[in-house]
Write a structure and sequence with these properties.
Helices cover 18% and strands 41% of the residues. It has 1 helix and 8 strands. The strands form 2 sheets. Strands 1, 2, 3, 4, 7 and 8 form a 6-stranded antiparallel beta sheet that branches. Strands 5-6 form a two-stranded antiparallel ribbon. It has one domain.
Length: 102
């Protein structure tokens, strides 16, 4: 089973901090790699057209952001960057077997 996950949080998606699932905005499930890859390419293109900054790290994780989207953190007394994260999980874990168009 393949899952393409969109999360929105004050940190990049590859960190997967405890409780990261609370920040999931959308999760789509696909039975084949090909279906997941096609959807992933669509969602990545959407975010690339919407946000000026992108970074990918640690495999199937992509972060998108704009400097204009920040939230004040009272505990740290500072502004935190808001990140829009896209993740590809296969059988419940980040997939390491993927290829997408760049």
């Amino acid at each position: 089973m393949n899952e393409i996950i969109y999360m929105k949080a004050g940190y990049e998606p590859w960190w997967l901090f405890s409780g990261w699932e609370e920040y999931i905005v959308e999760k789509k499930t696909f039975s084949t790699d090909d279906e997941a890859r096609k959807y992933l390419e669509i969602i990545l293109e959407k975010f690339r057209n919407s946000y000026p900054y992108e970074r990918s790290e640690k495999g199937p994780f992509w972060a998108f952001w704009t400097e204009d989207e920040q939230e004040f953190c009272e505990a740290c007394d500072d502004d935190l960057q808001t990140y829009h994260g896209v993740l590809w999980f296969k059988n419940g874990s980040p997939t390491t077997d993927f290829k997408i168009a760049e």
